[in-house]
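Let's do one together. I've listed all components of the complex below, 705 residues spread over two lines.
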Amino acid sequence: MKKIALLACLIASPAFAAEIWVTNEKDDSISVIDVDTLEVTRTIPTGERPRGITFSQDYSLVYVCASDSDTVQVIDVATGKILHNLPSGEDPEQFALHPNNRHLYIANEDDAITTVVDTVDRKVIAQIDVGVEPEGMAISPDGKIAITTSETTNMAHWIDTETHQLFANTLVDARPRHAEFVNNGTELWVSSEIGGTITIFDVATQTEKTKISFDVKGVHPDRIQPVGFKLTQDQKTAFVALGPSNHIAVVDVASFTVTDYILVGRRVWHMTFSPDNSLLFTTNGVSGDVTVIDVAAQKALKSIKVGRYPWGAATKP
Amino acid sequence: MFKLLLMCIMLTASAASANINVNIAYFEITRPAPPVLSNLDPIPVDLGLSGARLGISDNQTTGKFLGQDYTLEAFIVDHDQDPMPAFDKALTFADYILVNVTADQLLDLADTPSAQGKILFNIAAQDGHLRDQQCRSNVLHTIPSYAMRADALMQSLLKKRWTDVALIYGTFPTDRAFADAVRGSIKKFGLRLRSEKEWVFDADMRRTASSEIPIFTQGFKDHDVLIVADEVHDFGRYVAYNTWLARPIAGSEGLRPLAWDRTVEQWGAAQLQSRFDKLGTRSMKDQDYAAWTAVRVIGEAVTRTTSADPNVLRGYIFSDDFKLAGFKGRPLSFRTWNGQLRQPIPVVSENALVSQAPLDGFLHQRNELDTLGLDLAESQCTEFKDQK
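Okay, and this is what the predicted structure of the assembly comes out as:
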């Protein structure tokens, strides 16, 4: 089946093969993986210490946080050429693109600031004081709320995207890393690396609904450190990277229960799905590879060698 | 001055709801630096204090979202002065006092009647007896003990199967204390101490190291690694590359187990390093890290309990809920038997992190971090009984 699809793709238009773009934190590059062949097809140079990565809505541009170059780079997807740098504030780590396809919300890790950049005018339109070491960024599907999590302050900061003011600051467990809006924006999920949990908030009231904990057999709880996570398109299943425990947890979203753990590479950071959600690609920082997981079978299929310390991942259909 | 400061705090914090003001004192008795052979690395005058300042700044950024305000005041006394008047002032100012003093001085301070009910954070003294028979219920230790450091080093040596050890130690009390911890750790992990010798030369090694060290080490039985216990950093730097046998150096020089070092970059540590670097011109060191950690322990406990009461904070700090993110890859917490902060120990070379203890394979029934230093079963400390 896959082979036929692959052939059809090749014949029709090879340029449109789905790809996974992976930032390599310590190689200053992006590895591009072909979703059909599961091989790295090209490597694109970037600025220093690339981490967060996201595509524009039409997939013609890709934005990359070049943390140590203190900039967000805009790269032409077709050619891999850096078109220009955006002013981003110091040490940008993660960001989220507003549904308006124009405003980037950037966490400035070294500066305790969230910067909002207009990607068209290439100008900073707001800077918001947040906690120490801002990291995770998320924007609600309706575009009204932006979230920054701060690693040392241990909070999710709720930003009104109209006024660019904070309207709530909610504590979570130690070292929050990643945030996502879930269930049409009614829930906010925040992972806490040192706390070892995911906190789930009711977005309407900004109050804590529940927490998910993890327990991998044979691994000390201290080493189970949730970082990146992603939900399937149907929002039924969440996959959670557990860092140095080298496992991905599979979570049933409706019941907030963990149903399985999948062994992947060392110090797993972030992940992205193939366009049809059949495959999941995880970045494994220490082992320098990407694990490909069969989503239906919940099994690791293959690991693909990329650059040094792969960090972020994004899908281009 | 003190009244004015309090007024300022009240004015600035009054805008936020549920205001909590937390005063933290930093108390130091300066120690004259012993004469050492090389002038290359003077001891920074702000060692410890700069870490506390960074901790306050981190606490403040967090506190501003919660109406919590933190104030640090430093009380620094010369070693030839009576420390008690300044210490009394520190106790009047704060319930939480970071102390940068020697072990003997620490015991005097902790036993002061007005220090009962306060929490002292030991950020400097690594001596074992402070965590053992001479522990005090009002003293928590954020600096690792000599034993924790020695155990971290032995784990690293065992992993390399460098099991045969020779030891050179200096004549200062800190050198001897570290050497004692090394001997204890050699026993604990089943390594072999093949030879040991005290460094008693008083020549200037910058001229004669190449001729003296080979002869000094010539009589040593064959060993895999030479441990140097020279905590004042006097002769140790001249040992490497001058020994009779070609052997790696570890301990106070060479492969060093430390609470913190500039080579620690994983687990987000690069951010802490860069925040510290911005404060001044030097890198973060052990005592800075211990001071930063102490201030963050207070901040974390205040944030989670919304209280500044030392009894409430103490209860939380010793509870299972307390988990401090300390940029070492694991949550930090306190040992309920002696008030020591459990923490991984980086083992570093001049320019890189070599390993971080506890190493894989060193197992423990409760927490692998407790393979480092005095464990529950061995500790003779009974002051923390109510915490168990």
